[in-house]
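Summary of Year 1 activities. Much of the first year was spent building the evaluation harness for sequence design. The harness presents a backbone, in tokenized form, and records the residue chosen at every position. We chose the following record to illustrate the format because it has been used consistently in internal testing since the harness was completed.
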């Protein structure tokens, strides 16, 4: 039960705490019935098994601000074989075209329209809202601009709360938000369900972490939370439609592989949606962990487990 769960301090987040927090939120996540997995040495070995690859950002392309070695040769090989590539990050602080600049600056062979985030899926659904006052979390984010939305910086005026990012968001901001939600309950749309992001020496708290804390501290029922990012369906739907439109094909979901470092977001989400899934174990959340035991305990089986590129 979330009510009784011991949420660690933001500075104490590590991979074990992250997995515990994902598990306490598991009842909200989509289900998957995969029970088998296969190990391969590297991603290069399984390129031919798929028509396209969707890569996660943190833990797959980069750790903190460092590009992971091997990403570029792998993507060049994928392109050479005429397979498709998308980058799907849960990071939603900025519009995807801005996020894309980071990857392009790193010389990753991808064009900006092939970088997507849950923010894109959310924007699409917000277009149907009528005259809504929105409070965007956190302080560093670029608000979503639509004619039917009014951005308010005063949470008291907001009809709707949208969680885009938490780089500049602390326990005082959290407490203010919680007090306001106790006064008046409101829906919260969460773009980024990630609990944490790996930075090499530490893990940063992400909107999934703060959302869990809001549920507990404001005693806010899960029905008030609407999730757009991995592992939830909206962003997978968005990327599948975009992939089909872009390539003018209707891909079999099984022939598209999501490459990720996190079982509860990338792998569970891909499995539940019908994509294949590839867990990368050398760099991100699962680095140095007892992968076989964890997979068995969590019952989240990637189609493939590979160390690196
Ligand atoms: Mg990741």
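For this record, the design step produced the sequence shown next.
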């Amino acid at each position: 039960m979330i009510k009784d769960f011991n949420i660690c301090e933001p500075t104490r987040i590590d991979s074990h705490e992250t997995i515990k927090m994902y598990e306490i939120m598991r009842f909200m996540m989509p289900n998957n019935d995969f029970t088998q997995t296969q190990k391969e040495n590297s991603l290069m070995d399984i390129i031919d098994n798929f028509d396209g690859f969707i890569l996660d950002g943190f833990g797959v392309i980069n750790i903190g601000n460092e590009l992971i070695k091997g990403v570029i040769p792998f993507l060049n090989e994928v392109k050479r074989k005429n397979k498709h590539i998308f980058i799907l990050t849960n990071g939603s602080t900025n519009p995807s075209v801005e996020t894309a600049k980071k990857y392009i600056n790193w010389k990753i062979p991808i064009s900006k329209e092939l970088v997507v985030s849950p923010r894109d899926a959310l924007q699409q659904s917000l277009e149907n809202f009528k005259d809504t006052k929105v409070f965007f979390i956190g302080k560093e984010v670029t608000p979503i601009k639509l004619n039917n939305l009014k951005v308010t910086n005063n949470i008291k005026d907001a009809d709707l709360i949208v969680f885009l990012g938490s780089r500049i968001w602390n326990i005082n901001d959290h407490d203010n938000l919680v007090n306001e939600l106790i006064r008046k309950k409101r829906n919260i749309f969460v773009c980024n369900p990630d609990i944490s992001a790996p930075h090499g020496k530490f893990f940063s708290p992400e909107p999934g972490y703060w959302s869990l804390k809001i549920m507990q501290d404001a005693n806010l029922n899960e029905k008030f939370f609407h999730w757009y990012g991995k592992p939830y369906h909206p962003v997978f739907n968005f990327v599948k439609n975009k992939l089909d439109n872009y390539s003018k094909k209707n891909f079999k979901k099984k022939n598209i592989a999501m490459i990720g470092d996190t079982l509860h977001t990338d792998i569970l989400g891909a499995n539940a949606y019908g994509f294949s899934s590839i867990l990368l174990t050398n760099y991100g959340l699962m680095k140095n962990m007892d992968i076989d035991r964890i997979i068995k305990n969590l019952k989240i089986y990637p189609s493939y487990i590979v160390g690196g590129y």
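Residues 131 and 148 are 5 Å apart (CA to CA). Quantitative recovery figures across the full test set are reported in Table 2.
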